[in-house]
Amino acid sequence: MNVTRGFTGRPRVRNDGLPPGQYDAGDDWPVLSAEVTPDLTPAEWTFTVDGLVAEPRTWTWDEAHALPPSAYEGDIHCVTSWSKFGVRFGGVSLDAFLDAVRPAPEATHVVAYSHTGYTTNLPLADLTGGRAWIAWEYGDGPLPAEHGGPARLLVPHLYFWKSAKWIAGLRLLDHDEPGFWEQNGYHHRGNPWEEQRYSGD
Amino acid sequence: MPATSAMDSAQSAGFTPPTRFAVPGRIAVSNRAAATWQRATLTEVRRETPHAATFRFAVPDWEGHLPGQHLMLRLRAGDGYVAQRHYSIASPPDDTGHIELTLDHVDGGEVSGWFHTVAEPGDEVEVRGPLSGFFAWPGDRPALLVGAGSGVVPLMSMVRHHRARGLSVPLRLLVSARSPEELIYASEYGAETTPVFTRTAPEGVPVGRVSAAHVAALQADRPEGGWEAYVCGSNGFAEHASRLLVDAGQPVDRIRIERFG
Ligand SMILES: Cc1cc2nc3c(=O)[nH]c(=O)nc-3n(C[C@H](O)[C@H](O)[C@H](O)COP(=O)(O)OP(=O)(O)OC[C@H]3O[C@@H](n4cnc5c(N)ncnc54)[C@H](O)[C@@H]3O)c2cc1C
C-alpha cells in the first residue's frame, strides 16, 4: 500500500501488545451490538451446555456462582480496530462448566448463543485450557448490561465478537457452523494477531 | 448491485438457538470483496455542516453495495503505521464506480482529522468492502429509519435508493441533530423525514430528544405487516431509540442497530 499523502497518525509509543491494525482505545469501551440490549436479570439468566456431551446441563445464576471463581486480567481486541489494555473480568473458567458436562470425543466445534439469539462459532480448543470464561464482573463491579451483563462469554485471545454477550449456552458439534457475524462476512476464527477479520483473510 | 441482493438471509439451515431470534442478515456478502483492499481516489469534497463533509471517491472495481452497508478504510503513514476505521456508505448503489462517505470531524480524531484538514481531490486511500449484510436494506420491506448525527449516513443511502428507484414500499426517517445547522443532508429531505432538534430549532419547532410521541406517531402509521426498524448513531442514542421502539410495540427481532462505537 502507498503512503497516504500528509498522513502521520498521532504521536504514538511503541506497544508490543497491540495486534496489527489495532489502536489503543484508552479509557473508552465502545459498544457494538447489533441488537437491542435485553432486560435480563440475574434471576432470569441461565447457562446451558449441550450437544455432543455426556451430561447436558443448565446452570442458574446461583449454581454458576457456586463454581470456583476465576478472573482474567489482560487485553481485549475488537475487529472495529480498537484494543483495550489491562482490563479485569471476574467469573468462572469455562473449563469448570465443560468438565461437568464431559464433551464427547467427536466434539470439535461450538456454537455459542446468547439470550437475544446472537450466535458465534468457535473451535472447542479455543475454549479450554484456561483461555475462556463466563464473566459477570468488570473491574470491581457487575458487568454492565450494554457490555453483556449479567454474564457474557469471554475469549480474550480472539476478536471480541466471539465473546458473546448475554451468554445463554454452548452447543457442542462435530463440525463448524458459522454464527451471526460469520454469516455476515466475518472470519470463522478471528485471531487478532493474524488479523483474521473477514472471510478470506 | 451485487448479484446476491435478492437473497434474503444466508441463515437457512443450521443451529437456531432456543431463544427469540435476533434478526438474521438481510443479504449474503461477497467474501472476496470483503477481503480485498482497493484503491479509492478522492474526486470531490462537499461540506454538509460545520462539522461534517461528504467525500466522493472513484473506486473503479467496486462491486456494488446495498444501502446500509459499511466499509473499512485505511490510511498509511510514512513510517508504515496504519490506521483503519469503519465508515458507512452514504451513496446509493446505482452510483457505479463511485462511493460517498460522510465523516464527522471528531475532535483529535486521527482518521477524520486527516480527512477534514488534509485530504483533497486526487488523494488516494484504501477501502475494503462492502461489509456486513446485517444492516442492509434491499428496498423490499417497509422501513422505519431512526438516526442521530452521522448515524443518518447509512439511512440516507436507503432514502436515496428509494428515490432513485422510485420504490413504492413505505419508508420513513426520524433524524435527530443538535440544530438545523448540524443536520446532515438538510436540503435533501422530503415528506418521508421528521427532523428532531435537541439544542436549537427553527421557529415553531420544539427543542427536545427523539421521544415516545415521535415513535408512537410512526407506529400508528405502520403499514400492514409492520416496519423493519433500522437505528443508527452513537451507542447512547441507539440505546435510547431502540428502547422507545420496543416500548412502542416494535418487535425486538425486527430492530437492526448499527452503533458507531
Ligand atoms: C460500522 C461503523 C460505521 C461508521 N460509520 C461512520 C460514518 O458514516 N461517519 C462517521 O463520521 N463515523 C462513522 N463511524 C465512526 C468511525 O469509524 C470512527 O470511529 C470516527 O471517524 C473517529 O475516528 P478518528 O480516527 O477520527 O478518531 P480516533 O483517533 O479514533 O479518536 C476517537 C476519539 O478518541 C480520542 N483519542 C483516542 N486516542 C487518543 C490519543 N492517543 N490522543 C488523543 N486523543 C485520542 C480522540 O480525541 C477522539 O475524541 C462508524 C463506525 C462504525 C463501527
UniProtKB/TrEMBL annotation, chain A:
<protein>
    <submittedName>
        <fullName>Sulfite oxidase-like oxidoreductase</fullName>
    </submittedName>
</protein>
<dbReference type="InterPro" id="IPR000572">
    <property type="entry name" value="OxRdtase_Mopterin-bd_dom"/>
</dbReference>
<feature type="region of interest" description="Disordered">
    <location>
        <begin position="1"/>
        <end position="21"/>
    </location>
</feature>
<feature type="domain" description="Oxidoreductase molybdopterin-binding">
    <location>
        <begin position="37"/>
        <end position="181"/>
    </location>
</feature>
<dbReference type="InterPro" id="IPR036374">
    <property type="entry name" value="OxRdtase_Mopterin-bd_sf"/>
</dbReference>
<dbReference type="Pfam" id="PF00174">
    <property type="entry name" value="Oxidored_molyb"/>
</dbReference>
